[in-house]
Design goal:
binds ligand PBG; 10 helices; 309 residues; eight-stranded parallel β-barrel
């Protein structure tokens, strides 16, 4: 009766990794229990998750090297598998809330989220590519765009383009306070998207900074974001709380790949009770102020929590 916080399956967004082809299911070695799936199996996965009460999905493409280039051309090619599968998922399951990733890195031969020239990531040139990508994704019928790249001005740029092209009902979940973090490595294994040189510190935030998150939140809010996201979640619970107390927008937190892998690895060794620690972790993120949690634990949580809806 006096319990202050509860995590519900409907609070969760399940990130999924998409492969080209058919009948492919490849486990991410650094994320036990998480698979890259081809489109046909992705449809089955979404169906199963919906039946478990998971209502929202964030789908990322794993692109083969031969299709990557400097300007991420495949990211807005409607014949490329990612956009085709997004469309199929929304046609088959209109009730599924589908979020996409707007960033160059899965399609970039440089492995960066921005356009690279002479070893530099160019902000404004990147926006043009992100705009084409966002429009192509919106045209598939998806619900939420997730600009995950941290270029300046991208939320306003994308919002403006969406509205001009009739996609007024597509939301933007901005990666508002995304830190340059060591916790993303398993994700980069999953997509084979690690930077080919340097790091992402010129566009992602310095983990030492807190007030800067407020500046990012103000900018994203003015530019028209519908959700503000903090990422990673666990080492940044103070940032989640800060944004929650300074904004009336829904706050999302991304419980990232490395946070998942740590718990899984310790549980496999018998050092932690995986189920218990998963629930405690999600609870802490919600208690800090997250309304929505992106987590690779979504399916496991839904199963484990199914008699407690
Ligand atoms: C890149 C992107 C990353 C994640 C989501 N989108 C990694 C990065 O910035 O290098 C990380 C997600 C995770 O670790 O679970 N646009």
């Amino acid at each position: 009766m006096v319990e202050e916080t509860q995590v519900k399956t409907s609070d969760l967004i399940f990130p999924l990794f998409l492969l080209d082809g058919r009948n492919k299911k490849v486990e991410v070695s650094s994320m036990p229990g998480i698979f890259r799936l081809s489109g046909d199996l992705m449809l089955k996965e979404v169906e199963e998750c919906l039946s478990l009460g998971i209502t929202a999905f964030d789908i990322f493409p794993a692109v083969e090297d031969q299709y990557k280039d400097k300007t991420a051309t495949r990211s807005y090619d409607e014949n490329f598998f990612y956009l085709k599968v997004l469309k199929e998922v929304k046609q088959r399951f209109p009730e599924a809330c589908v979020m996409t990733d707007v960033a160059m890195d899965p399609y970039s031969s440089d492995g960066h989220d921005g356009f690279v020239q002479d070893g530099k990531i160019l902000n404004d040139e990147t926006l043009e590519i992100l705009g084409k990508m966002a429009l192509a994704q919106a045209a598939t019928g998806i619900d939420i765009l997730g600009p995950s790249d941290m270029m300046d001005g991208r939320v306003g740029y994308i919002r403006n383009l969406l509205d001009k092209n009739g996609f007024t009902d597509v939301s933007i979940m901005s990666y508002t306070a995304k830190y340059a973090s060591g916790f993303y490595n398993p994700f980069r294994d999953a997509l084979d998207s690690a930077p080919k040189f340097g790091d992402k510190k010129t566009y992602q935030m310095n983990p030492a900074n807190k007030r800067e998150a407020l500046i990012e939140a103000e900018l994203d809010t003015e530019e028209g974001a519908d959700f503000l996201m903090v990422k990673p979640a666990l080492a940044y619970l103070d940032i989640i709380q800060l944004l929650k107390s300074n904004s009336n927008l829904p706050i999302a937190a991304y419980n990232v790949s490395g946070e998942y892998s740590m718990i899984k690895a310790a549980a496999q060794k018998g050092w932690l009770d995986g189920d218990r620690v998963m629930k405690e972790t999600l609870l802490s993120i919600k208690r800090a102020g997250a309304d929505v949690i992106l987590t690779y634990f979504a399916k496991e949580f839904a199963r484990s929590n199914s008699n407690n809806q």
